Q: What sequence folds into this?
């Protein structure tokens, strides 16, 4: 018998001063049985960074043909494809061909090693941005994961803070490829 996803609910207040975007989102996250709290919270951060009315969570780990998040236009064309983790070159090349822009968020302590091995293979992907989130911050985010969450995300001058009212985590990021 297949294991089912665990459902998490998050009321996420986003104050992105860099984009002048201020909104509260009521989100439902389906956490795949093989997904960690850390990865799920990185998906949530990725959502906050790119939030808009068209951005949605996908089947992700349940369907290898879909990213973790995407944004489609009214015709169904994929404008933004977001992967979380350390995807291989085939996934990145496919995403780059199917979407206007691809963003990968890595968050592991080994991300530098992964990127060093992959960088030359995806250099031709001009629509690719690869961002490494601080591994310690990602670990701290995992401690915030609850089945029901009230979170506030503030983005200002490229800095990201996520708080649940008790704990605040500053999420540092380093751009490996793309917009700096």
A:
């Amino acid at each position: 018998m297949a294991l089912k996803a665990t459902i998490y609910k998050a009321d996420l207040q986003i104050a992105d001063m860099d984009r002048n975007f201020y909104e509260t989102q009521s989100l439902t996250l389906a956490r795949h049985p093989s997904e960690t709290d850390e990865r799920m919270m990185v998906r949530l951060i990725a959502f906050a960074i790119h939030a808009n009315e068209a951005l949605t969570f996908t089947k992700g780990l349940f369907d290898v043909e879909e990213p973790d998040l995407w944004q489609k236009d009214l015709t169904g064309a994929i404008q933004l494809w977001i992967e979380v983790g350390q995807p291989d070159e085939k996934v990145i090349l496919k995403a780059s061909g199917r979407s206007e822009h691809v963003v990968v968020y890595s968050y592991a302590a080994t991300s530098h090693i992964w990127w060093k091995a992959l960088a030359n293979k995806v250099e031709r992907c001009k629509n690719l941005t690869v961002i490494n989130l601080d591994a310690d911050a990602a670990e701290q985010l995992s401690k915030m994961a609850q089945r029901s969450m009230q979170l506030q995300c503030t983005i200002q001058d490229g800095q990201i803070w996520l708080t649940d009212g008790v704990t605040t985590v500053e999420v540092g990021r380093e751009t490996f490829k793309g917009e700096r």
